[in-house]
Write a structure and sequence with these properties.
InterPro entries: AGP_Transferase (IPR051678), Aminoglycoside_PTrfase (IPR002575), Kinase-like_dom_sf (IPR011009). This is Aminoglycoside phosphotransferase domain-containing protein. With 248 residues, this protein is an alpha+beta fold. The protein has one domain: Alpha-Beta Complex (Aminoglycoside 3'-phosphotransferase, Chain: A, domain 2). The chain is built from 8 helices and 10 strands. The strands form 3 sheets. The chain has a 5-stranded antiparallel β-sheet. Strands 6-8-9 form a 3-stranded antiparallel β-sheet, with helices on one face. A two-stranded antiparallel ribbon has the order 7-10. α5 packs across α7. It starts with a strand and ends with a helix. The model has no long low-confidence stretch (mean pLDDT 93).
């Protein structure tokens, strides 16, 4: 029998790997619906759907390895990072799906969520007030009108597989939908901004770096408490709190 490997697990969902098959268990049927539909529409390589029996979605493993993970070493040549940038641009240039995604929340909704979260981070003593205040100022640049794009919504480097300099697939599409393209880019280079020039080389130069940094701060501020509640450590080297400290 193949070894069962836990890829990720928390209160919302879990992903297991059994041999060459990934099993995603998600009690929220709507998220699985979005994932399957988004993969069918995305103009980039995605895992093959093998079968689906709620609450489980089975997909084939992808060739190659990921570019790394947040808080860990990044791998891949400059050409591989550029290839990832080109694949992301191809996604963003495609007609967006008809539903809003994680990267498509309204400015008013995001502003309220951000302000409420910043208050909780300080009053509960999770982060120092000066760190929160500075990153809230940086995050303001993300709170502006944007043109809807086809966004992945959770484009961590651990979700992009490469083989040599070729992108072989992008996984985890449950947050996909219409959104701000720069949110995806900020998520992708979070904690690994040393590769931003390579990504831009593949993506194109029409990128507002202030907005990229703003989304990084905003995303990190919103993630800290929820990650702690799910058993992850945003204070680990290279993770969300280090991203926030880099703005000081």
């Amino acid at each position: 029998m193949d070894e069962v490997k836990v890829v990720v697990a928390h209160s919302e969902r879990a992903t297991l790997r059994v041999g060459d098959v990934f099993l995603k268990v998600d009690a929220d049927q709507a998220r699985i619906d979005v994932e399957v539909e988004a993969m069918s529409l995305a103009p980039v390589p995605t895992p093959e759907v093998l079968w689906r029996k709620p609450p489980v979605l089975a997909t084939a493993a992808l060739r190659g390895t990921t570019l790394g993970r947040l808080g860990g070493p990044a791998t891949g040549s400059p050409a591989a990072w550029a290839a990832a940038g080109a694949a992301i641009r191809k996604l963003h240039d495609a007609p967006p799906p008809p539903w809003p995604g994680r990267a498509g929340r309204s400015i008013d909704e995001l502003t309220k969520e951000l302000d409420d979260e910043c208050e909780l981070l300080v009053t509960n003593g999770v982060l120092p007030a000066d760190l929160v205040t500075r990153n809230r100022q940086v995050a303001e640049a993300a709170l502006r009108p944007w043109t809807p794009a086809f966004t992945h919504g959770d484009l961590q480097i651990a979700h992009v597989f490469v083989d040599g300099d070729e992108v072989t697939g992008i996984i985890d599409w449950s947050e996909a939908g219409q959104g701000d393209a720069l949110y995806d880019l900020a998520t992708f280079i979070l904690g690994h901004e040393e590769h931003l020039d390579d990504v831009i080389a593949g993506y194109g130069t029409d990128i507002d770096l202030d907005v990229i940094h703003a989304w990084s701060s905003l995303r990190s501020l919103l993630a800290v408490r929820s990650l702690i509640e799910q058993g992850f450590d945003p204070f680990a080297p290279g993770c969300e709190v280090d991203v926030l400290r880099s703005r000081m």
